[in-house]
Design goal:
CATH topology of chain B: Alkaline Phosphatase, subunit A
Shape of chain B: globular
Strand content of chain B: 5-15%
Radius of gyration of chain B: 24 Å
Distance between the termini of chain A: 58 Å
Structural class of chain A: mainly alpha
CATH class of chain B: Alpha Beta
Strand order of the largest sheet of chain A: 1-2
Distance between the termini of chain B: 57 Å
Helix content of chain A: 40-55%
Structural class of chain B: alpha/beta
Oligomer: heterodimer
Number of domains of chain B: 1
Number of strands of chain B: 15
Shape of chain A: globular
Largest sheet of chain B: 9 strands, mixed
Largest sheet of chain A: 2 strands, antiparallel
Radius of gyration of chain A: 35 Å
Chain lengths: 874, 491
């Protein structure tokens, strides 16, 4: 018996002692972790030869001398289920061959595999926790098919399984696929014809480049990333304008995503900005909205839940890690301890959300820039026992750290000194200018008000000249009170302006570099001016409160609550009259330091040394181009997740992504110009041989047909009808206006409480969590397309643009080309023509008032909008 | 586009021979039932013909699922020993070897060994039990109304499952551990196996908010590889807009709408020939046809105006506590009565693991939840009886697992897959039966143990379906996926 010597086979990734049979060595490393004397998974113990032969619940594992009959090899080769090793990387071809040979040579053990020799825990070498290495591009037989390395990796798997990739699809289908995929709307007939007319060999690549340069690309892909990054407009008590979750003006974050994608900002830079723009670009109003990613987790009443969301979704979305499981106990699958969960949380512990003023609007309820900032530098993080916020382990303050098992080290956390524009945002000159303008307009308004009150008083006086009643005097007193109040208000407003200017002047001296020696005098002047204005304002308020109070008392049924409130306001106003204080700053002054924790975290995540980040992002992009992800558990790359269908392809793309400077456009281009992407999506026949081998199309021998996402359905109807309003950006639009407004769907309010009904029907993303969209087929979708106003109206518009007068034959052809992006088959053509001829008769019999020929054409277009090929991306 | 104009003469000929004229004749969707087009040529395999394989005892199923894990020992499986030894550590009781029982390992599919903690400190029963009916089966005092029906019910006290987390919710419907992915659920098998009893209504309806994404989500009423057309259709219990967009825009008459649907149907027929392998397209074609008919049929079912006061009270519609679930039970009856094969009703969705997940405050939580469903469920059983529907309607009351005999924290119970209870009634199921048993403390199912698929097998058996005959080529199922009908509870 000649045993293979392990060391001879240097290519095997095994670190075992020499002088033992190779098959046994592989078992020791890959199988006995679970199939040991102790664990005996499925009743199987592979630690001894006799036990392996006896086997487990499924029967003998090894038939010595007959590898083909050995169950062990079948499950390891994934010929039969359950595929082994369970939830782990498949054995390599070399390993499988070695085991087969070993079994054929009688499966000799030499000695039992001892428990102590069991492999290190699977976790530490779990594929996703090891930084991807750039694999060699396989050399394949089907070289003609290979346009770029994506194809090479796929072709290698095809060859292994005797799969033959489907031929390239026709040009119209391909163009429609690329359009919908890259810009979210199908091509118009003119665009199709331009493409068909371009005879150059690079016609398709040219089209792809044009689409990637189209600003609609940013809108299309922003929506994808908004799914992953949990975009939500604010929600809470909408009637009370009470923000309870997410925050106002999230749209600035959405617009930042759109613009960043269009500029092809690196994915790494985007991640860094989203987590820490307030520390990295604290002065940059164009970067700060990125922190909407974290601001979005705001929860008015639940700080703990807020931080949980920040932790959980940063990990799920950017790292594909379900760290959330470790909130209450050590993670059950992944090597993440409960303490590590809270250490991860401490990156976020200091942060809060605020709204800074934007130019032109002083009221931050109306407009503003929502952003995050560190509000406390030393807020402690504790482990919460069983995840219970009532039960923190106060013995130990946890410091920020990343899970050790991920390998990549965290950089040094260095606190950041913030510029004044950041820690005192109202010190910016545009805020001063806006406030002064506001104060001036307040004076004007007070003057106008006074004028009105004066007129009103005169009118009452005049009225009283002719009548003399007690009620008349009441009225006169009322008018006189109002007049007095208006006078006081004007006086206060007039005094407020110089006080404001004095405060600004003092502030400017205070924060001047080098220090302004005049500061003290200016501060004193500001104090006096503010006091003077304050007295006038208080005076106004005292009168206002007094009037309220008397009115409340005089009411037929005095409202106790109103009276106490008025009283309170009165005493507050009176107190203000006597207060002596320093001049007040123009707005809130925040801490002039930030912990730097999130910067360290962001740089750790957005680094080539992080084993997960690039892979997770690539997987999301792949899913949205090819219809199925490489790792089907897109948010879980841990031990409980699924192994990638093409591990080497994933790693190659991940390294390529990093190499390209994290350019998403580069990856899009690579994916959509591959031969794989251009394949036909249909097997074309019921019994296609590849379909028998790989019915799920796991190995991508054909393209996957997909259904348009909700937004694409709506946008495409509008776009084809020539009715889409192409304006970009801006505040969210009322979600109930979805069928009237013609803006793109991305711009409508979208939160857990408020979503456009039409979009919901087509599996609109759940704003709380949507790492992958559902693609349901339910009758409600048919009803939404058939019965909604948008379908009917746009069908009418489309029919008109195609030509209500045109002959049936021409109309059918043009309608197919416009709505479905393809020509009708002969059969479809004749079905269509028949309809256009017969339908007017039906309409006439129904006594429809509209011209029947036109109405039939509208119906025809409406039917095409309901056609399966409309919502399908072939 | 037209890449296969003539390459599939057989398919085409079948179509031309078989097809009716859209809605005027037999619809295209009906022709496509059971995947006939795609699979017809697979040698020796026939798609289901929609008829039972053997004489059926039941025609329809109402499947009530409590999300989160109902405590078996506080509902249908009394264990006085828990009260006797309450507060004792398991090791100090006669049951100390229970945690070493090989069933612990055998039951659980553990990804990492030793994770599943057993709470050793026994927790006393939080509610009393009384014998009810002629059968004298003990039911907890939280179920006064269902207890009245106990002589019509077969309680199965010896259930077990393998998933110790709430993936068990999906597992209870598909039979497969959450780690193994998505598989067809029981409702989808029924949908796949039986032809429609009412062409105007979906045959598999889901009421109530379904399982959360944490625990299987819509896959818990999905059809996986059977294709989306066999998945459950979610309906809301309200007459107006139980389906959104269910009325045509103003000025479009029924006849005109129908003419559009007919044209669409003709185009669909062409597409079906062109894309014989596109399951989503087939599903969409069917959903269009169904949608057209559902526009009028669904609001009629969901409008309760023809129900009298007595019926409303029976389901608890007169009380705020019982009304929400009562309306679902009443809707379920109306759907079943109108010829829907499978109605899956969820209770307890809370945007997470489910309201029944009593890790703490079990007494308060369970007593309130039982109150919400007790009267509606009893009302459903009584109403089915008085309408003569009980004999061919199976009602299943289920949950994903039970709760630990040991205390979790001070006043809760943890997940417990080793033994738990469900019950069935009607549709040829024996009444007044308590089948199987857990041990003295409700830890392990020890007598007549049943995995969750045994419930599927029992239901399918009563419907006259043999799951082995429903198997799809290329989709090998294991013995455990089929389960075994529970003969002892079949009348």
């Amino acid at each position: 018996m000649t045993w293979l010597r392990v060391l001879v086979l240097a290519s095997l990734p095994l670190l075992v002692q020499a002088e033992q049979p190779l098959g046994r060595a592989i078992l020791e490393k890959r199988c006995v972790g679970c199939h040991s004397a102790q664990l005996k998974k499925s009743g199987l113990d592979l630690s001894r030869r006799d036990l392996a032969i006896r086997g487990g619940d499924r029967g003998p594992a090894i038939v010595p001398g007959n590898s083909k009959a050995s169950l062990l090899l079948k499950v390891a080769k994934h010929d039969v289920e359950p595929h082994m090793p369970f939830q782990a990387v498949k054995l390599s071809e070399a390993e499988l061959e070695a085991i087969a040979k070993w079994i054929d040579q009688d499966a000799l053990y030499e000695r039992p595999i001892e428990a102590s020799a069991a492999p290190e825990p699977a976790a530490s070498k779990h594929w996703a926790f090891v930084v991807p290495k750039r694999p060699a591009i396989p050399v394949v037989k089907n070289a003609d098919w290979v346009r770029n390395p994506i194809d090479a990796f796929l072709a290698a798997e095809h060859a292994k399984r005797n799969l033959v990739p489907q031929p390239e699809t026709d040009k119209r289908t391909l163009l429609r696929r690329a359009y919908v995929d890259l810009i979210g709307v199908p091509p118009l007939p003119a665009e199709i014809n331009r493409f068909l007319a371009d005879g150059s060999p690079n016609a398709y690549e040219t089209a792809v480049d044009r689409l990637l340069a189209d600003p609609r690309y940013g809108e299309r892909w922003a929506r994808h990333w908004m799914d992953v990054w949990r975009y939500s407009d604010w929600y809470g008590w909408r009637k009370g304008n009470d923000v309870r979750n997410s925050h106002r003006f999230m749209w600035r974050w959405r617009d930042w995503i759109v613009e960043s994608l269009n500029r092809d900002k690196g994915y790494d830079d985007m991640v860094v900005d989203m987590l820490a723009a307030d520390e990295i670009s604290p002065k940059d109003p164009n970067s700060l909205p990125a922190t909407g990613f974290l601001a979005r987790n705001y929860s008015k009443y639940d700080r703990d839940g807020w931080l949980q969301d920040a932790v959980d979704h940063t990990a799920l979305g950017l790292l594909g890690l379900t760290v959330k499981c470790a909130r209450c106990h050590d993670h059950k699958y992944d090597p993440i301890s409960q303490a590590e969960y809270y250490k991860f949380r401490s990156f976020f512990e200091p942060y809060e959300v605020r709204v800074d003023r934007v130019k032109g609007e002083v009221d931050t309820d109306k407009d503003g820039l929502t952003r995050i900032y560190d509000a406390a530098l030393d807020r402690p993080t504790y482990l919460l026992i069983r995840g219970d916020i009532q039960n923190p382990d106060k013995e130990n303050v946890l410091t920020p750290a990343v899970p050790l098992s991920l390998g990549a080290p965290l950089g040094k956390i260095e606190s950041v000194s913030l510029p004044i524009e950041s820690y005192y945002p109202d010190h910016r000159s545009f805020v001063h200018a806006d406030l002064i303008a506001q104060a001036k307009s307040d004076i004007e308004r007070a003057e106008a008000e006074l004028g009105k009150k004066r007129e009103a008083y005169t009118a009452v006086e005049r009225e009283l000249e002719s009548v003399n009643l007690k009620a008349g005097y009441e009225k006169l007193r009322g008018a006189s009170d109002q007049l007095a109040l208006a006078q006081k208000a004007l006086a206060a407003a007039k005094e407020y302006l110089p006080a404001l200017e004095a405060r600004i002047a003092a502030d400017q001296a205070k924060y001047a570099v080098p220090p302004d020696l005049g500061y003290e005098a200016l501060a004193d002047a500001a104090k006096k001016a503010e006091r003077k204005a304050g007295i006038l304002k208080a005076d106004e308020n005292v009168l206002r409160a007094q009037l309220e109070f008397t009115e409340a008392l005089r009411a037929e049924k005095p409202d106790e609550k109103k009276i106490t409130e008025a009283q309170k306001r009165l005493s507050a106003a009176q107190k203000a009259l006597t207060q002596e204080a320093e001049y007040s700053s123009i707005g809130k002054v925040y801490l002039n330091k930030s912990t730097g924790r999130r910067t360290a975290l962001a740089q750790w995540i957005a680094s080539a040394g992080n084993p997960l980040t690039a892979r997770v992002a690539i997987n999301h992009m792949w899913l949205r181009h090819f219809g199925k992800p490489l790792v089907s558990t897109v948010f879980d790359f841990g031990l409980n997740g699924k192994a990638p269908s093409h591990p080497e392809l994933l790693d190659w793309l991940a390294t390529e992504f990093v190499k390209s400077g994290w350019s998403m456009k580069a990856i899009h281009r690579l994916m959509v110009t591959s031969s794989a992407y251009r394949m036909r999506s249909t097997a074309g026949e019921a019994n296609h041989p590849s379909a028998a081998i790989d019915p799920e199309n796991k190995y991508l021998w054909r393209m996957n047909p997909r259904r348009m996402e909700a937004e694409v359905v709506r946008d495409s109807i509008l776009y084809l009808a020539g009715r889409m309003d192409s304006a970009m950006g801006g505040p969210e639009i009322d979600e109930t206006k979805g069928l009237e407004s013609r803006r793109r769907s991305i711009y409508f309010r979208h939160s857990p409480d408020t979503q456009m009904e039409f979009l919901k029907m087509f599996d609109a993303p759940n704003p709380a969590e949507c790492y992958t969209r559902n693609e349901s087929v339910v009758p409600q979708q048919a009803l939404a397309l058939a019965n909604s106003r948008i379908g009917q109206e746009q069908a009418r518009v489309l029919a008109k643009s195609i030509g209500l007068e045109s002959a049936p034959a021409a109309f059918v052809k043009a309608a197919f080309e416009t709505v479905l992006g393809r020509l009708p088959s002969t059969e479809e053509q004749s079905i269509g023509e028949r309809f256009l001829v017969r339908q007017p008769e039906l309409l006439a019999s129904l006594k429809v008032s509209a011209p029947t020929g036109e109405r039939a054409r509208e119906s025809f277009v409406h039917v095409l909008l309901n056609h399966n090929d409309f919502v399908t991306i072939r | 586009m037209k890449t296969y104009p003539a390459s599939h003469p057989i398919l085409r000929r079948n179509f031309l021979a078989d097809l009716g004229m859209g809605f005027t004749g037999l619809s295209l969707g009906a022709m496509l039932s059971g995947d006939g087009v795609v699979r017809a040529a697979t040698a020796g395999w026939q798609p289901p013909d929609g008829k039972p394989h053997f004489p059926a005892k039941a025609k329809r199923v109402i499947w009530l699922f409590m999300i989160g894990g109902v405590s078996h020992v506080e509902t249908f499986d009394p264990k006085p020993a828990l009260t006797k030894y309450g507060g004792y550590s398991l090791a100090d009781t006669p049951y100390k070897d229970y945690q070493e029982n090989p069933l612990v390992k055998k039951n659980l599919r553990e990804v990492i060994a030793g994770l599943h903690k057993i709470h050793p400190s026994l927790y006393p029963l939080q509610v009393g039990f009384k014998k009810h009916g002629q059968s004298g089966i003990e039911v907890s005092d939280w179920w006064p109304n269902v207890a009245e029906c106990i002589d019509d019910i077969a309680v199965v006290r010896s259930m077990w499952t393998t998933d110790n987390n709430h993936g068990a919710q999906m597992q209870f419907h598909s039979g497969r551990h959450v780690l193994e992915g998505q598989f067809p659920t029981i409702g989808s098998w029924v949908h796949y196996g039986l032809s429609s009893m009412n062409e105007n209504l979906p045959q598999f309806v889901v009421l109530g908010e379904p399982v959360d994404t944490c625990c299987g989500g819509v896959a818990s009423h999905g059809a996986a590889y059977l294709g989306p057309e066999h998945g459950g259709v979610q309906l809301e219990v309200r007459a107006e807009n139980s389906l959104p967009y269910s009325t045509p825009t103003a000025g479009v008459s029924k006849e005109e709408q129908k003419s559009e649907f007919d044209l669409l149907s003709e185009f669909s027929r062409v597409s079906t020939v062109e894309y014989p392998d596109d399951a989503a397209m087939r599903a969409r074609i069917k959903s269009y046809e169904l949608a057209f008919r559902m526009q009028t049929a669904v609001p009629e079912v969901m409008r309760f105006s023809d129900e009298n006061e007595a019926t409303r009270r029976l389901y608890g519609l007169d009380h705020d506590t019982t009304r929400p679930f009562g309306e679902m039970c009443l809707a379920a009856r109306r759907l079943a009565e109108s010829g829907v094969h499978f109605v899956q009703v969820f209770h307890g969705q809370n945007g997470g693991a489910g309201r029944w997940d009593a890790h703490s405050n079990l007494k308060k939580g369970h007593s309130e939840l039982c109150q919400q469903v007790d009267r509606p469920i009893a009302g459903l059983l009584k109403d089915l009886k008085q309408r003569g529907l009980f004999d061919d309607t199976i009602v299943v009351f289920a949950t994903e697992f039970g709760r630990t005999p040991g205390a979790q924290g001070s006043n809760g119970r943890d997940h417990h897959p080793f033994g738990f209870s469900v019950w069935l009634a009607g549709g040829g199921i024996k009444g007044g039966v308590a089948h199987g048993a857990t041990d003295e403390i409700g830890f392990h199912a020890v007598e007549d143990r049943h995995y969750v698929t045994d419930i599927h097998a029992t239901v399918l058996h009563q419907l006259g379906l043999d799951p082995r005959k429903l198997e799809v080529p290329g989709r090998k199922r294991l013995d455990i996926d089929f389960g075994q009908p529970i003969r002892e509870i079949i009348a």
